[in-house]
């Protein structure tokens, strides 16, 4: 279906480019618009006022505003992977081929089945769901809640991943100006002229704010021309940066602000491949000038939500800026002067005005001027009801005095109702900066109080209205901000000349009485999107919800996607009136980031996939990949898990690898192990305090295994440390623990023992470590290092040698995590791959087999060696692990005192033992809990759990390690592991060493 | 996002730092001399004031040096940055019941 | 006699233009003395008062709230309810709580919208898998429903999760507690308030406790911004502010208060029908009945009483979320907020008597207090009424920080080999 190009345009004027027609589709119908339109202005220019349905009652709704405060005109933009729900049509810039659909209506916007809710609306009052659907529970689970969920929600999530990219910028500036309306432009000019680094961010497509739809003159120039001149000057200042389509949404500690720049959305989907769609700006500013304007408040009267009801300022904007003929006969309903701008705009556009309904008995000079122009002004009157369904058709006008309607009035027909209930300064960012707002009884709005950060508010967001005053305040704020940041002398430039407009005070009319008692005829909407009415607020107060936060939560007022920009103050005032309190006594809800919704994607930026967290690989990684290794994530590292041959699964591969190590020769890339150089006069003393055992007496060239505890006595990390010189140790840590161990060492050195002269340096990435393990390891080393004496006497277990290996300078440590004869060959990282290749070549005749972490785990478990994080979980002491031999009685060490606390010293703590399943083929699941007797109903007392469990080709059977209450006292006993499905595995408790108890293999 | 003035590197974003909790809690010189309650207090009990708080920070992604700070836990304002081993500027923070280390 | 809530009363009141609904709770002035004073009108405090009245017949009780009911962490959390904790002590306490949850709407005559849609805890590496399976085994023996799902099972239960092996931290599986889910947080506070009020408890808002009157090592009263109140039993249930209050009684606690941030998206049609949590990539996500995606992550690293944190925490959490749910990328964050959580060194709560006779403390719930609300209130009421710990509360006493009998629920340390 195609509709002709909209005929609802003014003859000329506006900031749309009439030479660039665009076509777009809304709800399946093709329309025309112009470059410079928003989706809302283009729809209105086609006479489309019904654009959405409300959340709860599915009431027909039209465009209410022309900006970020829009509660009604929400659309689903585009289709497929780039579809986006809940966009405000008032902020969507029109582009060729735009496709939008309305949300929350089915099957169509004009015939929406959900509208049946309107019939039941009498029961669907605030909080009705808390009072029903309780019994039976199964109906809540299966019927009510699924139904509520289906009814809720607005638009739809895409079904495909996002094809677009996002990025982030981090900038510093002297002055950040938020908002490029008259105050913001003035501030940016005043600050920019001083040479300060100024950033001006503005959410709209073009700068100017209210000046773009203003009929006023500045220094004799039409407002838009003054804007153009201001922008030209800003462009000429090299330290000034102006960012349009950039919404500052968050104001955080110490003048840190976040903004989103929409870089391609206005061009249409996929228009600029390779360019980020949106950009997240992180700004740290010395000074901030907030010039965020104000939001016009709707009036709360019966059926104030019909399509064709619009904020007066939006009426002026659509007519003047977008050249839209919004209707043929308008009524203006206001409590204040500002709506007379709409009157002027309508008059200038030749749109008929049925009447102005001004609640003030004596509305003042603006009303007089309107009357002089031939407009009928009903002073002291209100709109008490409206007519129409999909478009307003008329209003009931009544006199109103002291909150009481006159018994009779008149009915006016109209197709447009412009409303103004006054203005609410956009204090959102100010509040986020921790500033407190205060109620200004004269201006009838919350205005910023004292600034909490290096910040100034200027213009309408500061409660300053009237162009001259706004400009003056902006200039002063800009000059002062620059001065405070160290630029300029603070002198304020002259304010442009503007015509004085005589003004009269506004009227505090928060709730317009209807023709019947509240709630009985028509609905007085406060929050349009969430369908919260004045009746709901009264009901909440009646039920004891007196705090403004309670009312918000009970009624959902202000919780819609506009976050209360149009509803908060009205709701608050109605609550205050209901409770008989003043507005400041009731207070306000907290303003929270974001000011307007922020795309998830831009918050993630590039930090997705591999960029989510750095991937660390060893210098030998490519070899592992080529060999077909599967990898395991260990912290940020990729470690080879196992190296399957064709047709092998993990078990087959691990059996082969494990057998190869015990029977011949295996090789492991151990480069990921944490390595820390520890140097200095007191290095030995330091290690004595850090490790549970003694290191200061370690001989040079010798190695020792050590355990570290936290002060709570629980094992924290382990590893082998070698002494390379009198004041020089080389510590190894677990792969995942390297960084935290280093941090922890530094913490103690710098904060507890600054008297110790010790220096710690991470060298994890500086060295590659290649562990060769197995009975043939010595033969291999002999082949590779002909100059190194490798016989057991010359190079005993737990010692290290430096020398040439495969022609490369290397450190060789004779230590073993497999229990086999092992050497760990360390070379500088850039030589790691060369050394590995040399080892593989020389090992070929020994049948060298590369193995991964899974085989490593199996082999060490056969020996009963622990793995931090597997046998330990932050609740296990060295004594629990049966490692009393490593816990010094002579000296203090970190955590020692904790070991003697009453619970930590208990005899029946869970302690490490071995398990042999009765069925030798049965591999207990790791994590299986162990009980004394099979059977029983939960909760079943548990003795402990399986920490490690494997089938061992070397033992020819399954085995496991476990932590069991009083374990060592239970040797020989049978325990049971109840598994899923009711099966129970029986196992015998044994010593946690399954192979070579004497250590002859590793020591030999 | 706090802006923290590292005494060695100048003002940097919070993301470069790591907070180490309450400052001036010195490890007892002779843990064995403490009873379980006193030792438990050293490990686990910490001041948690609403307002000025003496705390330790480390410039983890910078110079990796530890330092002390007085920060207001309500406003997040940083009132002082001072070296490890020294006392806070006069009138700032509460050392409370924590064991106060001597100025080194 | 309190009005019953039901479809029938809703209908009847609808027909009378809702003019006859009663206040859900009174707004009394404080009396000079009470048998028990509960400090803190959040979910846990209100539940404590409710069960004191209901289970122990102690109705001369005041709940003192310095702000508005449920305005602390009760109204700021991500509403996840589950009981699949590792250690026996925790599992018993949280399972006790979950069982109370299952009957709570009916018990309170207030729909707290418990939605048992299942909670998945994802595993992303072999260490996670090991830890998760250990928890499943332990849960089952403790009578907590628990299942292990492999990657395909995860995909089946939550089809929109990206289970591709090519992501940075692939999903290797998950634990699933089908009885876990979410509830409507505000309704919990309001329901308990209404229930307690109906049994005679005075709920006093805008009443801050400024000090404790202690004589001979025993509590004799509290000082408040609305005057002194005599009492011989005080239960402090003030979440982030527990340390501040305890300090007024001369008690130090092993607690640190941190900001915990959360956020919601704009409402969308149902797309995510369970709760997904991942400790490894730091995010948890569910979708509310209103259609908002509800998300949280880890705490900010510093102490704070400001109910706000730093934005980089949220950016990091969002990256983790999109890694798991790529189709969420074009959705938008609507609102962020922060709570103040009091964290114990062992990530387990305090439900404890104190060195001051008659002074009891319930806190240290860290990031996980909401799910415990009914159970916490239930056992704490017992502890106060009998002046001895409820058996389920006993392990969570303050003296565990002396004896070393910690209940460390941090989960196994990251894999370290």
Sequence-ordered SSE layout with sheet pairings:
The complex is a heterotrimer of chains A (1004), B (104) and C (417).
Chain A: E1 17-26, E2 29-35, H1 39-45, E3 52-53, E4 60-61, E5 74-77, E6 84-88, E7 98-102, H2 116-119, H3 137-151, E8 166-178, H4 182-192, E9 198-201, E10 217-218, E11 221-222, H5 223-236, E12 240-243, E13 246-252, E14 256-262, E15 278-290, E16 294-296, E17 309-311, H6 312-320, E18 329-334, H7 339-349, E19 352-358, H8 365-372, E20 377-379, E21 381-388, E22 392-401, E23 404-413, E24 416-420, E25 423-425, H9 428-432, E26 437-440, E27 445-448, E28 455-457, H10 467-484, E29 525-527, E30 532-533, H11 534-542, H12 548-555, H13 568-579, H14 583-586, E31 598-599, H15 600-604, H16 621-626, E32 630-634, E33 637-642, H17 650-663, E34 666-669, E35 674-679, H18 683-690, E36 703-709, E37 715-725, E38 728-733, H19 738-752, E39 759-762, E40 767-773, H20 777-784, E41 799-805, E42 808-814, E43 822-828, H21 832-843, E44 849-850, H22 853-862, E45 910-917, E46 929-930, E47 944-952, E48 957-965, E49 974-978, E50 984-990, H23 1000-1003
Parallel strand pairs in A: 1-7, 8-9, 8-15, 9-12, 15-28, 17-24, 18-19, 18-24, 19-20, 34-44
Antiparallel strand pairs in A: 1-2, 3-4, 5-6, 5-7, 10-11, 13-14, 14-15, 16-25, 21-22, 22-23, 26-27, 29-30, 32-33, 34-40, 35-38, 35-39, 36-37, 37-38, 40-43, 41-42, 42-43, 45-48, 45-50, 46-47, 47-48, 49-50
Chain B: E1 3-6, E2 10-13, E3 18-22, H1 36-44, E4 52-58, E5 66-72, E6 78-83
Antiparallel strand pairs in B: 1-2, 3-4, 4-5, 5-6
Chain C: H1 7-15, E1 36-39, H2 43-56, E2 61-64, E3 80-81, H3 88-102, H4 104-108, E4 119-123, H5 126-141, E5 147-150, H6 151-157, E6 173-177, E7 181-182, H7 185-198, E8 202-204, E9 209-215, E10 218-224, E11 227-230, E12 234-236, H8 242-248, E13 256-265, E14 275-278, E15 283-287, E16 293-299, H9 311-324, E17 332-343, E18 350-353, E19 359-363, H10 373-386, H11 400-403
Parallel strand pairs in C: 1-2, 1-12, 2-8, 4-14, 12-19
Antiparallel strand pairs in C: 3-7, 4-6, 5-6, 9-10, 10-11, 13-16, 13-17, 14-15, 15-16, 18-19
